[in-house]
Amino acid sequence: MDKRTKEIKIRLTDSEHQRLLDRCDRTHLAEWLRQLGLGEHTSRKRTLPDVAPELLRQVSGVGNNLNQIARRLNQLDGLSPQQSVSLLAVLNSLDRQLSELLEVHRDR
């Protein structure tokens, strides 16, 4: 199998992105889009988590928001090192809590 080295970047609105996520039946959006665009069936390497879809969507939305916050914080020059460390600690804590929440609801 050839290694994938080419990248395509597209811009989406938040609502377009969410609509794609809602329709996606794969773990990764890129796999699903590749399958749609190329008409090829790729085997799943991992099974989808057994989680209530609504919970998964909400947690995914929170994760997306956290990523946006982290990206913006990394772009700011006005934060002191202590503030940066403190904010990153909060983000890490939230990430851990979201992971635990998913784990608790995985078998429900």
Question: Secondary-structure map with pairings?
Answer:
Elements: H1 14-23, H2 29-38, H3 53-75, H4 81-105
Helix pairs in contact: 3-4
What does this structure look like?
The protein contains four helices and no strands. The longest helix has 25 residues. The mean pLDDT is 80. The chain folds into two domains: 48 residues, no CATH class; 60 residues. Helix content is 63%, strand content 0%. With 108 residues, the chain is mainly alpha-helical.
Q: Any key phrases for this structure?
A:
single chain, about 0% strand, mainly alpha, about 110 residues, about 65% helix, 4 helices
- Per the principal axes of the C-alpha atoms, what is the gross shape? globular
Instruction: List the uncertain runs.
Output: none
Biggest pleated sheet: none
Mean pLDDT: 80
Total of domains: 2
Number of separate strands: 0
Structural class: mainly alpha
Distance between the termini: 38 Å
Element-level helix/strand string:
HHHH
| Fraction in beta strands | under 5%
Gyration radius, in Å:
17 Å
**Helix fraction by DSSP (H/I, runs of at least 4):** 55-70%
Count of helical stretches: 4
